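QA checklist item 7 of 12: single-chain prediction sanity check.
[x] sequence parsed
[x] length recorded as 312
[x] structure emitted
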Amino acid sequence: MFKCKVSVGILSDPGRKRKNNEDSCLVYEPKDKLTCRTMGRLYAVADGIGGLAAGEIASRVAVERLKDYYYAAGQSNPPQQALQQAVLAAHESIRRQASTTPKFAGMGSTLTAAAVIDQEVYIAHVGDSRAYLIRDNKIALLTSDHTVVAGLVQKGEITPEQAKTHPQRHKLNRSLGGRKQPDVDLITCSLNIGDTLVLCSDGLHDLVSDREIKNIVTSIRNPQRAAELLIKLANERGGRDNITVILIKISGSVKLLQAAVIVLFLTLIICGGWFYFNRDLKKERIHETLSKLCTKVNSFGRNLITNVSSNS
């Protein structure tokens, strides 16, 4: 067990080909400590769909409605259920605005959201933005792309290599804002110290491979600098679309109870080992030496527990 801490890198860029940035992103940590402890920190990437300013509005509505509804719903629902309801609320808000404003007709958005609560991450996902987990120098894709081409790959009709250049590779079969309420993919994953979560739009993962994402994130300690390098690389390769990335680096400190157990274990090992190798000494000498040894171990333990408590 450990107390989860995060450091975040975030950047959104219009790319080289588009004037407007139709991506939106969210990094939110509640100021209220109880809310933060029970509902966690919330992160999201949304990629808008629609001409003119419609896509930009759709993605912004998606992340704003997600945040407001998630923390409201979380007062009476488990985090994963609250996250699902928040995504569907975002869908309904986009659909309602598109149906009442003619110039926004047909607008929609992807949405990939992650709530980090202590040592768990809860993910809700619709569309082709992505969530990755980088751990032990390996990268794992946590989400599935909701595209026509991804479906063809899953059926075995085309190969993953063919999918990269397929003319319909960006055609979504699931998004927010359409007439039909989308199914929301829900993923839960335990977190370890040293993990990094990556949320990104297709403007990044279309041009930068999973392996390249992993290499940059693991080689650059500062997540903000790593985010900047990822977007720079995508732009150097053409920047065909808007590019957004959020890097969430997990760190933490050992919790108090675990620290106490470690101290007790070390005491038993050290004292037991000393007694075994010095069993021929006189009883008075043994007692005197063990007393000094236990005092030193006890001092070390108090310092360890004090440091853990101050970081908790």
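[x] summary fact logged: The mean pLDDT is 88.
[ ] second reviewer sign-off
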